[in-house]
Design a protein that fits this description.
Blueprint lengths: L9 H12 L3 H35 L2 H50 L2 H4 L4 H43 L1 H48 L1 H6 L3 H54 L4 H42 L18 E9 L9 E8 L4 E5 L6 H8 L7 E8 L2 E4 L8 E4 L10 H6 L7 H10 L25 H14 L4 E5 L7 H14 L4 E5 L3 H6 L2 E4 L2
Parallel strand pairs: 3-8, 3-9, 6-7, 7-8
Antiparallel strand pairs: 1-2, 1-4, 4-5
Amino acid sequence: MNFGGKEYKFAVILPWIGKVVRHYKLKMCLNVVLGWTVVGLNFLFVWTTKNAIDMATVYHNQWALRFACAMLVVIIILQAVISAINRRLKTLLSFNMNRRMQEHLFHHAVSANWKDINEYHTGDIVRRFEEDGTEIISFVNGTIPTILLVLLQLGGAYIFLFVLSKDIAIALAVIMVLGIVISKFHFLKIRSFSAKIKECGSRLQAALQEGVQNISVLKALTGQNLFAKYYSGIFDIQKGNIKRRLTYSVLSSTVLNLGFAACYLFVFIWGVLNLETGAITYGTLMAFVQLTGQIQGPSRTLINSISDFAEFYTSCERLNEIDSINSEKSTGKSGPFSGVPGICCENISYRYSDNKRTVINNFSHTFKPGTMSAIVGTTGAGKTTLIRLLLSYVSPCSGHTYIICGNDKREISADTRCAFAYVPQGNSLLSMTLRDNLRLANPGATDTQMLQALEWACADFITHNREGLDTQCGESGRGLSQGQAQRLCIARALLSPSPILLMDEATSALDSETEEKILHNIRNNIKDKTILFVTHRDAVIKYADETVRIS
């Protein structure tokens, strides 16, 4: 099972981010402009504060002092209004961007190559979608505009400082160049920590998901404590990862804070000494102190954003890895068949990987249109694999499979999947109403058609419920017996307009009497479908037109 993320160059990540934000460029620009406006008002506030102090202490100009005070009030009101508008815009923008990205990733995941996407644990995929997706949107919609704002603020403060004192400005420029050089190594270190923490986070998500889904199994095996130790062991690994990153972060932030404190102390002492000699006014000293804060704040934000960028970059790599999985190939031949088709398998062989045994070896058979076939064989012989080949979840290593309807002959691919109605092993009900579950197979089905399918599948017990078709199904059919859930899955397949019915051990949880009734109903009422049963049950073989043995 794959939990670790691949590394990608920035030239690969940048276009991928472009796809995420391309529909929201205008609103993102507006977000930045509003932020820049607030920064401009901050500088105006500093300048107005300086003038107000000078007017009160040096020039004693009452009219100018009143004007400066009025300007301060207007600036504060404008800052509050623009900040409120900016917060609202940013919140809605984050939601819309996250929604579009999640929808795109989900659509890609469900249309990705089945074998490739199955290399990833579902818990890992969910973790990537939720946590990594949130981090990406937060960085794009929050951190990037903030970086642009602080760069503007830093540039403005630096120019302001240069006008007041060239010596301090030059010294600051040298320090900033050194900071840029050091930041590269800081980024690589944080990125390494981030990758390990995210990989371990995916393992935690996978373990938690499996534990919750299998609570009844853990209880029956009295394995709660053992699984809890396994889960706790992953937490111990994560704790080690976080402690290593925390130690590095604390050391780096301590050095950073000492540097900022030294800079502030230097500027303050320099200002006090110059104030004593009369080289500067008290208002100029206040401007120096405020500008020091205006420079230190953005500088601290930029340095912290290096860690944010490392997290963001790792998240981009993890989601781009999912987004880079090949989609299912299309032959370009899709659409319904004009009649009841058959299936032709020509010398197909398959193995799941190069180092594993061949599961199906040179299998050939023609399933005639409108017939009912029982596919039998020992466990592991390849019966379910044949179903996966017919559904184009996997492709044969050699040979060909076709759907044939008269002169219409199509090689099986993702495009021909619409020809199949499938009942898998186990419970495949989703946490929706029964009506919604049935409509997955036939969105346009009427209540009459649904009730008919339920009757044929001996699942009309649902009509005795007060909610009827609007009965809410629990997760994985919770609240239903295995036999009831299996019958509902059969009803869903019978409701489908697809001309080929695939049933993989679809009656394994049923008693013999109910199984006989369902098979009798299918045999007598389903005349316009080709039916393939994977089974070990004698009753199915009795009703089948032919028995196909896979060995």
